[in-house]
Amino acid sequence: MLCKDIYSALTPVLARYDSEQVCVVCDANVSFESPYPTLTLAVSEQNKSLERVSRIWDFFFEHGLTRRGVVIAVGGGVLTDIAGFAAATYKRGVDYINIPTTLLAMVDASSGGKTGINYHGLKNSIGAFAPPVDTLIWPGWLKTLPVHEFLSGYGEMLKTGLLNTKLWPQFLQYDLDTMDLEALTPLIEQCLAVKGRIVAADPRDSGRRKVLNLGHTFGHALEEISMQNATDSHPMPHGYAVVYGLIAEVYLSVIKTHCPKEPLQQLTQLMLHYYGKPQCKCSDRERLIALMQQDKKNERTAEINCTLLRSVGSPLINQVISPDEASEAFDFLFSL
Amino acid sequence: MLCKDIYSALTPVLARYDSEQVCVVCDANVSFESPYPTLTLAVSEQNKSLERVSRIWDFFFEHGLTRRGVVIAVGGGVLTDIAGFAAATYKRGVDYINIPTTLLAMVDASSGGKTGINYHGLKNSIGAFAPPVDTLIWPGWLKTLPVHEFLSGYGEMLKTGLLNTKLWPQFLQYDLDTMDLEALTPLIEQCLAVKGRIVAADPRDSGRRKVLNLGHTFGHALEEISMQNATDSHPMPHGYAVVYGLIAEVYLSVIKTHCPKEPLQQLTQLMLHYYGKPQCKCSDRERLIALMQQDKKNERTAEINCTLLRSVGSPLINQVISPDEASEAFDFLFSL
Description:
Shape of chain A: globular
Largest sheet of chain A: 5 strands, parallel
CATH topology of the largest domain in chain A: Dehydroquinate synthase-like, alpha domain
Largest interface: A-B, 41 and 41 residues
CATH architecture of the largest domain in chain A: Up-down Bundle
Oligomer: homodimer
Number of strands of chain A: 9
Distance between the termini of chain A: 39 Å
Helix content of chain A: 40-55%
Structural class of chain A: alpha/beta
Strand content of chain A: 15-25%
Number of domains of chain A: 2
């Protein structure tokens, strides 16, 4: 739910719980004042691990949190994914509230009930479906968001835009040079409405929800390679990977399912103008393809399953891609 | 479901899955032949840990198990609890089938959807509600079950018996000296039917299902202390702890909720004849009470919440016990 003030939005949600049974898990780079016990955690895709989950469980035990209590998760998508998984498995599940503080977390991670951690370098490969009792979205957090994080969130919005004929032209019109929050707020709202309808129809990701995976089969592989390759602490932001994945998958849509070329050109322009080219080498291609064959979205071992487009607003789920086709899509992406 | 042969019972259940997408997790002391990849695991209450869960996840990844696959868990309750939790969190949840091989697992762990591990010495304090797609019960496994494991399972059956006026006299009549399987089978079936009705009405243990916790508030604490105290690998079997817990809680039922003394006398006789006295010292009392205050069944911090009886067949949930009352119940139990 969009709100103008986090504290006044929290009050009615917390009224359902004993005030001694509230624990906060807060991202280290966010400031969130509250009277409740708070665990501040530095998180990243690299340490989105079982070890962080254990830290959170320990904190819950120390504060005597019972199953009737509630956890408030404040931060980006990595934080809300980890804290959500810790809450989902603590004493077989305690309620939690998400307060996403990045654009990516607002439009993606914080709603829909997917929680989890990375395991053996595979993104979100251990986790649970456990929706938060509420998600409070305050666009004010975005005023101080670094530009690359803003763009990362917008990459995920672009994906949702491609699923809806009304949204896509609005998303192309939004001015990424000024990043005006007032103009962005109704777009966030529409994004959440589109996602909410899809998730409600298929909460466990077995059918229709797969349309939300557009861009993510190739995107996840690029992100994982980047995590493995990154020598510093700055691998590819998730939403950048989604933009690159969208280009690869819309390219395949053009050649396999007769999608018009226009959205591919529009995406390519946005990428070149704002996101830059992916930092991957052609020699990564084999590892990328192997990673896609391990993707949890696959229905069979070693098969690459992805969502393609017939056109903007008309996604096609469960499209099987051959390794040669995958290779060709990477060639296209890396040649831009 | 009760079956006469595991393999013919499995066939229709497995027909729903790709035969290359079946993984077996099998208790080290059980022999189970199948054409599927099998991980054999030695498990116990002491190593019912995150480390075992990781072993199972690794095995699933090695064999390329996808979300459309299925896991067969074969073994006692510790094995099915760990494997069920691993399945529930692998790629946010893969189907699993339980094949319980001990009486305790048949009547308790393998149905009802509770999965989990011990954490910081607290039983099942990390876990998930994730029911198996099927539970196949073949009483033939019990022919070679050690006597103390048989008695442990029967302890859990006694608890279910106390919840039902028709079952209780049948359970008292069953001859524990001969342990005849043919006479036992209909009792297992009735036990599962009683449990099934209760779980269906409250799958997440927030209300009516708490009647199944009878004996478990005191029982879990005794079991945890025994795990902490055990210098060898033989702590108190779960069902023994339940019998001791039932005695403590039925004692409290007599003094607090006017339960007749008869079931307390019947339980005490069974205990002295078959189970022996609990291996706990009066000096453990303070630690036992502290453990009960940490129990995940509690609704508030530091409160001891338990299920008592008004009479056989009439359980009362959410009864709050003071530390003094808990102490008195332990005195009674330790003085027998």
